[in-house]
Amino acid sequence: MTDRYDLAIAGASFAGLTAARRAAERGLRVVVLERKPEPGAQVHTTGILVKEAADLLDPPAHLVRSVPGVRLYAPSLKSIDLTSPGYHFLTTDTPGLLRWLAERAVAAGAELRLGEPLDTAESDGGTVRLPEHGIEAAFLLGADGAKSRVADLFGLGRNRRYLVGLETEYDNVGGVDGRFLHTFLDSRLAPGYIGWVAPGPHVTQVGLACKRADKPVLAAFIERIGTVFDLSEATVVERRSGLIPCGGCVSPLGRDNVLLVGDAAGMVSPMTAGGIFTALDHAAAIADAIADRQAGKAVDPLALARASYPRFTFKRWMRRGLDLGPPNWLYNLMVGTAPMRWLARLVYFHTKGLKSKKAWREAVGRGGS
Ligand SMILES: Cc1cc2nc3c(=O)[nH]c(=O)nc-3n(C[C@H](O)[C@H](O)[C@H](O)COP(=O)(O)OP(=O)(O)OC[C@H]3O[C@@H](n4cnc5c(N)ncnc54)[C@H](O)[C@@H]3O)c2cc1C
């Protein structure tokens, strides 16, 4: 028997669940296929929400912790503190957050099929058929992550450049100042990216990521930060790891009635490696466009994707610089200087607080007058 839907989605994570909820709220018949047994299983991400994502989601207080600033460490472990008025991050109980997103999508009317990977699909340009699942749909959205099966099946663009990230979650890490995300520059331990210690709502998240050609050695990083934090009583709660696309959006983004969104589309900042906000934001917009199209409006969701997905022009240039692996002595020299403060604030807080001359002066440490 075949069921007919307006929208079929592969992947029940940030992008897929957001699109499912929005489309269902708009009155579409939506089905989500997820290969894992439940949305919060085998999470690969640190799950930190930038303020823009926090504002979009407004998650329940028990699933998050507000962290106002960033403490940036040089390889020498000299550090600077960065904040921006009105800005904050949310660290999250990520499995809990994904379960909450799934509940909201289902409450809106989306059908969630867990433990059902999408393996085969075909489209005649008007209808997508997923015969193994007894599904026909007007649209298929590939929200199935960095190694998208939907992109494979329909000859769409593939992510080709990655960072690889590794994280351990601990109970009982001592000496962590909860006002900050602690981020570590070190081209030897984290070539091409950073290490981090994040005070989560219930645990402390310790991780690092680097270019895919290198292998992150978490044990060496943990030894390194042992002089800053006390891990002598720490116990491991969970381990996470995954690939982070860092080459910008893929091309093509879709074909006819099949589209990519989130990591599948490569919409992760090549500089910060954050992809949750863009996944949420664009998934909702694409779902709206599909709903408009199904309502008979002259809207082309694929054209919208092409026009609105981020280009990351500046951040892709910055990524090239990071890939060259600035030597540690340069980081040691730079951290604490006005240009580095300015750059770090631009990266962590976007342009927030930098638009006025006064704020710029504060950012580079020259007072506010
Ligand atoms: C170590 C690490 C740390 C990170 N930290 C952060 C951070 O702190 N903040 C931030 O903003 N970003 C972070 N990112 C990036 C962020 O996790 C991703 O950008 C985000 O998860 C993208 O969401 P998504 O829904 O597009 O894809 P994903 O979260 O990757 O979800 C894809 C979903 O599709 C499912 N799936 C895959 N194949 C199939 C199939 N064939 N059929 C059905 N289902 C399938 C998967 O099981 C999964 O549930 C991090 C990434 C990594 C690897």
User: Could you name the CATH class of the domain at 3-41 and 93-159 and 249-314?
Assistant: Alpha Beta
Described by the principal axes of the CA atoms, the overall outline is globular
Helical proportion, percent range: 25-40%
The counted number of beta strands is 17
CATH topology of the domain at 3-41 and 93-159 and 249-314: FAD/NAD(P)-binding domain
The end-to-end distance, rounded to whole angstroms, is 72 Å
Uncertain segments are 352-357, 359-369
By CATH, the architecture of the domain at 3-41 and 93-159 and 249-314 is named 3-Layer(bba) Sandwich
Provide the succession of SSEs.
EHEHEEEEHEEEEHEEEEHEEEHHHHHH
- Name the structural class: alpha/beta
Spatial extent as radius of gyration: 21 Å
Major β-sheet annotation = 8 strands, mixed
Number of helices: 11
Average residue-wise pLDDT: 92
Bound molecules: flavin-adenine dinucleotide
* CATH homologous superfamily annotation of the domain at 3-41 and 93-159 and 249-314: FAD/NAD(P)-binding domain
Give the amount of beta strand, in percent. 25-35%
Descriptive report:
This protein starts with a strand and ends in a 6-residue tail after the last helix. It has a domain at 3-41 and 93-159 and 249-314: FAD/NAD(P)-binding domain (3-Layer(bba) Sandwich), CATH 3.50.50.60. It is an alpha/beta fold. Strands 1, 2, 7, 8, 9, 10, 16 and 17 form an 8-stranded mixed beta sheet that branches. A 7-stranded mixed beta sheet has the order 5-4-12-13-14-11-15, sandwiched between helices. Helix content is 30%, strand content 25%. Residues 10-16, 33-36, 44-48, 117-118, 143-145, 149, 165, 167, 240, 242, 244, 262-263, 268, 273-277, 279 line the site of flavin-adenine dinucleotide.
